[in-house]
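Ticket #699: bound-state structure for iron/sulfur cluster.
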Amino acid sequence: MSQATLHTPTVRTTCPYCAVQCTFDLHLERGLPVKVTPTKDCPVAHGTVCKKGLAALNDLRHPERLTTPLLRKGGELTPVGWDEALAYVRDALGSLPPERIGVFGSGSLTNEKTYLLGKFARVALRTPHIDYNGRYCMASASAALNRTVGYDRGLGFPADDLIRSDLLLLVGANVAETLPPLMQYLKGIKDRGGTIYAIDPRATTTSKVAGRHLAPRPGTDGILALGLLHLMKQWGRIRPTAPAHGMAQVLAHADDYHPARVAHDCGLTEEDIFTLGRAYAESRTPLILTGRGPEQHTQGTDTVQAWLNLAFLTGHFGKVGGGYAPLTGQGNGQGGREHGQKNDQLPGARSLRDHRHRAEIAALWNVPAEALPQPGHSAQELLNACGQPGEGGLDALIVIGSNPVVSAAGAGQVTQNLKALRHLIVIDFLPSETAQIATLVLPGSMWCEEDGTTTNLEGRVQRRRRAVTPPGAAREDWRILCDLAAALGRPHGFTYPDFRALQDEFFRATRGGKADYSGLSADRLDRASAQWPVTSAAGPDTPHVYAPPFLTPDGLATLHVPQLRAPTLAPRALHLTTGRLGNQYQSGTQTRRNPALKAEQTVQIHPDTAREHGLNAGDLVTLRTAHGQATAPVALTPGLRRDTVFISFHWPDSANLLTDPHALDPHSRMPGFKTTPVTLHPAHLTLPLPTRPSLSPVS
Ligand code: SF4
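RESOLUTION: The complex was predicted; output attached.
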């Protein structure tokens, strides 16, 4: 491997986008990275790469790149120096009660920034209100795993184990578009004679490769799992993975989910249920992988729980090649949910509610344990509280690496809330839609301008290495957080002499936590990546984690009875489901600006449904829900269910104008991105869209 310094022609680092975290060599010319080469020793991608990764450098010196702080003056964002920007922070935040300030982070932040952001919120700002956009991604799967086995490490095994499955159920996981390098594993399974089902309301590239496709109604994946458990019980296939709490209740509950009921609720045939059930019963190593399809619901935790229960009760959970696991989405979606930017969490996947955990971290941070705030608002609740008077409301918000104006549920309402704040401070490197309405924008660092670590979808920690310094007056994000602490007069604990000092503190902070990285160092990671826990410098890493005894008080798992109901629709309403496109990423701040990643927003509708509504391909259609309306051209999509409409969420003033900002999963606090009742209207017959007031351009 090349030496990773600023002066060598190549630098080994990781992709800024999805949770595969492909490793790249960046080739430098005259000090700037100019080319990406995938590396054959990447533990997941094995030298493959997708177009997003190959094009990732295009944004590096984008004309809109933020290179100086911008302060809103006279309604316009105006370039200012750092001294003036930090004086604004001092005056703005220093005069507010801590509980009136919120922090909104990101699953794209490195582990070190995740750690520092949580520390900054709780020690420098002293606010309880910090959460992040990963709440919109993995939260339901994470909640189900945590309450069942006490921890969540995504796959829980090396990706190379995937091909040892003889039956793969991809539940709401369109990996061909969202995690393309995983397609080589699907091929591997089929080459070995295995079977793959794609369970998705849309036919996708993934379902074509899988060869077997079931298209249940959106919001009914968990009921399908209950139907399978019902059959496994009837057929004598219950062989629990290990003793566990709650098994009898879960099995009794499954008695109600006979194939006729499940077929009706899911919009499938009884034969579909029996065929899938037989395949599962006969498989030696059935593996269930969930994506955002079953997770991004207001009953997402219980939906995942239903699949997890099935894997556990049939003896496959934790088995090599089999079991259950979620597929993480965001680049550092795994590490981002472990190290303290969640509202109830401390580093190392510790709980802010646990007295021992609080004491451990308080000692490291040299503050009294009682000074650490209690858990605050979760992500959507935090955004809903912005600009609200009275108890629980927020007057100021710091956003880093996230764009809730596009990505939050009920984006129209959220945008109004953010505009009602007295202070909206955004740290970013491109003028996202959220940055454009900020009162202060601080220019931060891009992926190849910073050191750190990320944790991929298999819980593997890898180094991200700096190849170039940020342009102009832009600063590395970790330095900005330290600068903010100093501006607030609370520099103690934020005076790291260099990045390595912060990184070493981060690794130390995880010692004794469930997500223990304390045996890691940059030097060790230069030799090899490692899957956590890694508890000592000389000790091994842990490729497989989902095995008893589990990280629960008595070492036993606890299965929970899923409380699921099939969604109902009013006459003429359809199911609106939102999702991703292959060459876009999240809110599109980077990828919509990237000329190599052309894409356009459309509304995917089955041709029969379009005909019933008087719509043809390319016609503008207005989608209306109880929460808003949005208009886009029709794309006729024969592979979609007739009762379902699909729209991607990468564009502003679009998909998330239609989603509900208030209904949340009771366990994961996830909004319902995947099922919203919607009606279709030819745009020429509808009233004009209520437009957002125009956004002030970034100077
Ligand atoms: S987006 Fe994901 S699959 Fe594509 S190059 Fe980046 S890490 Fe790899």
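RESOLUTION NOTES: The longest strand covers residues 628-636.
TICKET STATUS: resolved
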